[in-house]
Amino acid sequence: MATSSGPRRQSSSVGASGDRPPIKFARRTSSGRVVSLSRDDELDVQGDYATQNDYINYTVMMPPTPDNQPAASSGANVSGDKPDGLTSFNAPPSSRFRTDSKHVRTGSLAENEDGGGNMPGKLDRRMSVMKNNNKSMLLRSQTQDFDHNRWLFETKGKYGIGNAFWQQDEDSFDHDTGMSMQDFMDKPWKPLTRKVKVPAGVLSPYRLLIVFRMIALGLFLSWRVRNPNGDAMWLWGMSIVCEIWFAFSWLLDILPKFNPINRAADLAALKDKFESSSPANPNGRSDLPGVDVFISTADPEKEPPLVTANTILSILAVEYPVEKICVYISDDGGAILTFEAMAEAVKFAEVWVPFCRKHNIEPRNPDSYFNQKTDPTKNKKRPDFVKDRRWIKREYDEFKVRINGLPEAIRKRCETYNKNEEMREKKLIRDKNNGVLPPDEKIEVTKATWMADGTHWPGTWHQPAIDHSKGDHAGILQIMSKVPENDPVMGGPDEGRLDFTGIDIRLPMFAYVSREKRQCYDHNKKAGAMNALVRASAILSNGPFILNLDCDHYIYNSMAIREGMCYMMDRGGDRICYIQFPQRFEGIDPSDRYANHNTVFFDGNMRALDGLQGPVYVGTGCMFRRYALYGFHPPRATDYTGIIGQNKAPAKKIQPQSEEEEPLNEHPDLNLPKKFGNSTIFTDSIPVAEFQGRPLADHISVKNGRPPGALLVPRPPLDAPTVAEAIAVISCWYEDKTEWGDRIGWIYGSVTEDVVTGYRMHNRGWRSVYCITKRDAFRGTAPINLTDRLHQVLRWATGSVEIFFSRNNALLATTRLKFLQRIAYLNVGIYPFTSIFLVVYCFLPALSLFSGHFIVQSLDISFLVYLLIITLALMLISLLEVKWSGVGLEEWWRNEQFWVIGGTSAHLVAVLQGLLKVIAGIEISFTLTSKSAGEDEDDIYADLYVVKWTGLFIMPLAIIIVNIVALVIGAARTIYSVIPQWSKLFGGAFFSFWVLAHMYPFAKGLMGRKGRLPTIIYVWAGLISITVSLLWIIISPPQGNNDAASNGELTF
């Protein structure tokens, strides 16, 4: 609203200076207060009212607001929409990119009342500016107060150039400065990610306590060495050796945790940079790089096809440009059941994926979505959501029935075709024998497995035959969903189905791959299957980034790939080899009895490694840079020299060498890869993938970037020669005389190929990033049965032992690996050996109670004080670690319990198996971890209570029994002793209870369902304990009763 406090006086024609009308002057102080000026204060009034006494040196600090509009000079024509700029006198025009420029744009000056220029006889309403060596000030009109709103209304004034307001004139280009509206409306450069440091109030005490406990451990161990137990040197010697190793193992685990960090990604900035209209991208197409998603499966019996199909559906519906996503599944078993289940999944995806896009469904795994306990209508606004959900739920139920019925349908089909083949064979024999079938003629027809089109399945048959068994079959590649169109394909209303009007109904490309296998070749398990997918995908799609998932790990957050891409496409992202996401699990029992969630590792250790050189690769939920998988070096690397890597220097560039030249580098990991195979299409794809994986060069600080709009070209459709080449690179002979598995791709030679592959990349100087999303990125399943869980831990520990005895030992790493990162990888190879000392230490309390001695001479004050300090320091460190990692106290305690259970069982066996492999060359084979649930449909945790005996139970069970018996014997010995040694009893009993408390989940797992054990078990356990106690007292009577015993008297 334009209002005024009083009528505005009109000025008349002005003659001499004596006719000057009275003017009230005022200035605004720094505090904002208006101060009136008297007529004695001479001011500079330009124009017709200027006099010879007006030029004085007076300074007033005025901000450039609408009532303070400085002009260029007194005689300039200032009418119009674009005002002159206020610049220093005799200064050249300033440039937009000059940092030393003092250019200030001000608002437009007021026009005269009649819309013309400077008219004689009328007061020029424009605001003047003093021309002196000081600041400008405001000249107010003859009215007492200046009305801002009326001034803007009557004069059509503008604020000027800036990002708050811009005039709507068509000709908005400033010919004097060369700037236009676009120059000021350009958004500032924004990073895609940021680091969120752990609060100093948590991290500083955490570090201080670690240093304090290190000093306390050193003092305690030195005191223990200087104060041996002369009565039981054997007990003292075993305990001190174990304690020294535990201190060393604790240092290896805690030192890499000195610098934990958090990270956050900006999805809005990613969209603005890569999917918004710009001069390089006028149509606003997606400029994001392509992503190839790899799914691995091997056995449909242990990895149900329905679970794999749900994972595929969650990937096909991911929120990423459809033309940029390609999905590949590696079926290493070559099973027709998996093949046909994937075909059914693609068919169902034609309605499931548009439904997810239409209603913004989360999660996009149908099974998980329909089993949610929350209200499905929450935040849903479309009126047809309930109808659509009801229809899609019915379709999914029918889809599940078809998947579950596939084994029977395939069996019946094969029986029908094989019977037809047998009848055809009989007919041929009759034709040869004049219509008579000889009674002694044996009709041999191969029991083949048939596809739906009436042809033989080229993979594994139900009844294995030559060229059709699990380790001997042809390579298979089937494009089940073709390459999508580059432009969105919008759906429409469909009678009886869903209304997809305005919804993109395209599906990403999906390919089924089963590499060729022959009996005379080593196929290198999962690592070999992954490398086959790397080569096939390079021929078909060549996405610069690869997302690796297990068949039971589905996408829980449809924006997860975008969040990972924020790190790859940010400044410095060209040095990142992979983005590791935390593993989250479903179907775990509420108490998490066996620490299946593993949150201490994923939220503690991995977050801490992110503050160093990056987290380790853990097998699934990882987005790779394809170029880094090929064994190349990062564009920039750093060498860390010195005892603790305190000296940093840029690493030297490694020059490529010919195959005949000997490597000149000190470490083999620093040599460049040369032998990729004989596929020219594959080798030509390598530089393309490297270029497309670069960040956007939209800022001067972005190094090794690519120009905007470089990835807008549509992908060409696949042709027969390209698919034939992809089939050739998955053949079993392709890797002969190449560096695949040695320097290129997933590394062979270990059951934990994931850790070795990540280690090799870090060893070349690459960095990795840990991406924890607000909503879990991926979710999967984990074995909740005790036997399966221990076998899983056994496989991991065995791989760590293999790493320790191989060239991948961190002690042999290059100088490009940070010191604390080296310690973390060293701990990966050493932690299984702690089991030897842990087993001994778990038996020490029992040995102490049996012998009547303790690990120290007596429980004196020094021992107790040291023990108290070390324990309290560890508790405080754990509490602070829980604080910065977000791990719950119960989860931390479960992790401690299972560390003892796994250390005394699986880790010990892993050390023995690793030593056998290194010394005797005995290979180790492992069974695939089952992904199926328990058989009890009413109890989803039924598998938790199933007791499946394994040799891994022997050592923990022996520790439990021995400690229980020792407690009974120790108590009886002390009670019936002439001079009771209560301190030794309390010391041994305390440590025995410590061991038993950690073994409680193991004992509960042996009790079966709901912990119900037959009463006879308790009876026999009590009888055995009492009998053994009495026998031990007779064999080794308490002190003071030896004389009585020697006289033939048994005294208690």
Brief overview:
The chain is α/β, with parallel strands linked by helices. α3 packs antiparallel against α4 (233-254), α18 packs across α19 (819-830) and α20 (834-851) runs parallel beside α24 (954-975). The radius of gyration is 39 Å and the shape is globular.
Key features of this structure:
disordered N terminus; 19 strands; disordered C terminus; Spore Coat Polysaccharide Biosynthesis Protein SpsA, Chain A; three-stranded mixed β-sheet; eight-stranded mixed β-sheet; 28 helices
Characterise the protein shown here:
It is found in: Golgi apparatus membrane. Keywords: Cell wall biogenesis/degradation, Glycosyltransferase, Golgi apparatus, Membrane, Transferase, Transmembrane, Transmembrane helix. Thought to be a Golgi-localized beta-glycan synthase that polymerize the backbones of noncellulosic polysaccharides (hemicelluloses) of plant cell wall. It is a multi-pass membrane protein. This protein is an alpha/beta fold and 1052 residues long. Among the domains are: 200-258 and 821-933 and 942-1035, no CATH class; 287-374 and 382-635 and 683-749 and 757-782, Spore Coat Polysaccharide Biosynthesis Protein SpsA, Chain A, CATH 3.90.550.10. Helices cover 39% and strands 8% of the residues. The chain has 28 helices and 19 strands. An eight-stranded mixed sheet has the order 9-10-6-5-11-15-13-18, with helices on both faces. A three-stranded mixed sheet has the order 12-19-14. It has a two-stranded antiparallel ribbon with strand order 1-2. The longest helix has 27 residues, at 200-226. The chain is globular, with a radius of gyration of 39 Å. The termini are far apart. The relative contact order is 0.09.
